[in-house]
């Protein structure tokens, strides 16, 4: 039996999309960049996190990770991913 591990979101601006989902989902944050990761990006010709073609959003506890991944083609139809969210009713 399989279990959900990652959700991949195809997008034009991974860093922006990752920040959106990290803010929208309780208990999630954009994965931090350490010196080794920044050096790896520079070695690939990527200036920094804002230009990273794959940005990770991690849960602070249990839950699937979100990968925001750059795709070259423009969106043509419906969203590339749809998540149904639930939030508590206002007091």
TrEMBL record:
InterPro entries listed in its UniProt record: Glyas_Bleomycin-R_OHBP_Dase, Glyoxalase_6
Signal peptide from the UniProt entry: none
Residues annotated as domain Glyoxalase-like: 7-87
Protein name stated in the entry: VOC family protein
């Amino acid at each position: 039996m399989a279990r959900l591990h990652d959700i991949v979101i195809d997008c034009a601006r991974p860093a922006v999309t990752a920040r959106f989902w990290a803010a929208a989902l309780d208990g999630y944050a954009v994965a931090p960049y350490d010196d080794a990761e920044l050096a790896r990006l520079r070695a690939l010709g990527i200036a920094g996190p804002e230009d990273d073609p794959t940005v990770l959003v991690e849960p602070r506890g249990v839950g699937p990770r979100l990968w925001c991944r750059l795709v070259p083609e423009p969106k043509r139809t419906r969203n590339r991913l749809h998540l149904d969210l639930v939030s508590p009713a206002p007091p």
